Amino acid sequence: MLYLINRGLTIAMTTTPESESAPVVKRSLAKELIAVAIALLVGAGLALAGWLYWSYSGAHPSTDDAYIHANTVWIAPRVAGQVVQVAVQDNQAIKAGDLLLRIDPVPFAAELAKASSAAALARQEIEVQRAAVSAAQAKVDEQQALVDSAKQQFERLSALVARGDEPKLKGIELEDTLKAAQATLNDLRAELLLAENRLGPPAIQDARVNQADAEVNLAKLRLDWTEIRAPADGWVTRVDARPGEVVAIGDPLFVLVEAGQWWVQANFKEGRIGRITAGMPARIQIDLYGNQVFDGLVQSIAPASAASFSLLPAQNTTGNWVKVTQRIPVRIKLAPMRPEQPYRVGASVTATVMVDAVDAVDADKPAADASSKAVSGAAPQAD
Known about the structure:
383 residues; alpha+beta; Elongation Factor Tu (Ef-tu), domain 3; CATH 2.40.50.100; 6-stranded antiparallel β-barrel; rod-shaped
C-alpha cells in the first residue's frame, strides 16, 4: 500500500496539469488494486486448495502402486505318461471337478490288475500255509499218542521182565519201538515249527495282507491320477499341453486362476500407513474400467516392508547411505466380482482407504453410549 501511495504521489508530482493527472492516477491505482486483490484471492485459493488436499489425503491414504491378486494353482501331473486328451482351451472358465487333461491309463490299469492278482495270491498263500500248519499239528498229535501208548506198554513190560515173567528180548524190542516213535515225533515237531515260521504270527499275516492291499490302493490312485480334474472354480490359462506329449511327474502344464477370493496388494508409503488398520473400508479404481469404483475392505497389514524379502535386500552399512522411503504391503479384500466387469490378476489399480469413515463411527460411539446411559438412567425416574 505504501508503494501504491508513493507511486501515486510521484505520478501526481510529475504531471503538470492537476486536472489531467487525477483521472490517470485513479485508473492506475484501480488497476493495481485489482491486480493485488486478484493475486491475494489466487494465493488464498491455492492455500485453501492445498489445505483441503492435505486434509483429504490425510483422511484418505491412497496409492497407485497396487495390483489385483488371486489364488493361482499350477496344474501338474502326479503320474508320468503320454497325454491322450486335453479337455480345456486357453482362458476357459471351469468348475471344480471338471476334467482338464487325461494321461494314457492303459499301463496303470495293467499295474492295478497285477497288484490285485498279487493281493489274491498273498491271501491264498496264507491260507495254504495255515492248512500246512494244521496238518503238521495233526501229525504231531497223532504221533504223540503213539509215543504215549508205547511208553505205557514199555513200563508194563519192564516190570514183567524184572520179575522174569517176560523175556528180556521182548523188552529190548519194545524199547527200540519207543525210541523210533519218539524220533518220528521230534521230526514232526520240527516240520510243525518250520510251517509255523513260514506262516508267521497273526501280526505278520495281517502285515502281508495289508501290504498287498496297499499296493492295490496305490495302483488305483495312480489310475485315477491319469485324469487331472479342476480343484476349484476358476479359469485355466497358458494351456500348452497337447495330445501325444509325454509328461513327467510335477511338470507344470497350465495355470488355474481360482474364482473364490480376489484381493488388492496396495504398497503404501511408510509415512501413510500409521492410520490404516484392518477392517477399514476402501475404494478401488481399476485402470481397466476407468473411473469405476469398487468396494474393498482392509484385511491385513504386512509386518515388514516389500523390500525386506527381496532376493537382494538393501544393505545400508556404507558411508554413502541414502534414505529411501519404504512401502508396506496392505491386503485389501475385493467385493464379489461383477459379471460385466471381471477382475484380472495383475491389473493396476488405485487404492484409497477411507480412514475418516472409521473415525466418524468412533466419534459417534461416545455420543451413542452417553445417550444410552441417559435413557437407562432416566428409566427408573419414569417409573
